[in-house]
Amino acid sequence: MLGLFACSEGHDQFLHAPDLGPSTDAAEAPLDLTPVDLMGPDCGQIMICVLQQCALTNLTCDQACVAGAQPAALQQSGALILCAATNCLAGLAGGDGGAGIGGMLAIISCIETKCPMQTNACEGLPFAAPL
Questions:
Q1: Pick from 99, 96, 122: which is nearest to 111 by CA?
Q2: Model-level pTM?
Q3: C-alpha distances in angstroms, 116 versus 11, 15, 45, 91?
Q4: Pairwise CA distance, residues 119 & 83, whole Å
């Protein structure tokens, strides 16, 4: 203890140092670390990315769309992508393969009719299959 007082002797900058202890001010808001802030894309966001940017056929692009996603979103989007690839891409053969706005609208129309269960299970998707 004596050494501590001896070190600050003659140094006025240590007399007015800021208090680094815990704050007692109740008005300070704590950090918001809710899971919503830390979640990756939901199923709807993944599907929009896959449909708009990847056309369901570019696996490297598809992987970028799912980066950081939660397991439930991966499962939902995976089921919908598999259903769409199985049931909808064959009808676009010889065309644009799903690329472009016409192909994307054709795939959306197809998955609404041929993949209704997977479409309605996909959280965050901006459209739904008719029941």
A1: 122
A2: 0.64
A3: 75, 71, 18, 18
A4: 9
Looking up tokens 């439930």, which residue turns up? 72
pLDDT in tens, 28-68: 666 666 665 567 899 999 999 998 888 777 888 988 999 99
Candidates 92, 88, 125; CA nearest to 109 is: 88
> Nearest 5°: phi and psi at 110?
-65, -45
For residue 85, give the amino acid letter.
A
DSSP 39-54: ----HHHHHHHIIIII
- Closest by CA to 110, choosing from 92, 88, 89, is 88
34, two tokens? 């809710």
CA-based nearest residue to 129, from 98, 99, 87 = 87
